[in-house]
């Protein structure tokens, strides 16, 4: 070691160079970071400054990593964390926490959250579809039932079976009641006669007052005839139900099925008198169905203790009804109709 000449300034001692701080933040994969500028080494030729005025090294600003463009193929990006701790993939160190790298939109990649789903078409109204199906099936079944009913029972195209009977504008002119004239010789000069004509039904009615003499001020008995021509429906079932069960409505009536008149006939009689007491009522009706024609001939009489009018027996009247019905039905088949 050489001796310093007198008056020469003292040479500064070589100072240890501070070691460079570790790079922060840690280097991310695929991200290029710039190294901080290293301070120039001091040479021993620089004079040593007093400790009081020794300049302190200024901290260098840490350069922020520059995000680079994402490649065409989408890659999984680190999920930002809401917790102020380093990412588990980076080593624990010192300094401020790493700021999350903002997500870069890729104009050519899949948008965040995936592509929006296509609007789902409304579900087919299954209930409405089934309702329409049931409606169609119901219509088919109803049509089949209607066709079967027309085939079995006859529809509008079925020709009415009138057996040659004709509706009359004046039914009383065609009624024969000659069997009753021996008991009731007085002629009725104003019989009741009316008629109804319709595409479904023709109806004729005649009512005649029976008197034993011209001295009678009121009718001694009542006589009527009614004929109906059913042109749309067969009256058979209703006719049978009405006359065969006529006695269900009145206890004093008797019903008897008779033959010799049309397809079916019933005789209905009633006698409320007792013995020699003529007070009460007597009646008899002969109902006939011939095809789709229905017919009734009725007789009824009423007696009391205040008059001396005698009434014929019911059995006698039944014979008159049968005889006159035969001739009257023949008259109703004549051509002179409505």
Automatic annotation (TrEMBL):
It comes from the Bacteria. This is Uncharacterized protein. Residues 19-28, 56-68, 109-122 have a biased composition (Pro residues). Residues 43-55, 69-80, 90-108 have a biased composition (Low complexity). The lineage of its organism: Bacteria, Bacillati, Actinomycetota, Actinomycetes, Kitasatosporales. It comes from Streptomyces capitiformicae. Residues 1-126 are annotated as: Disordered.
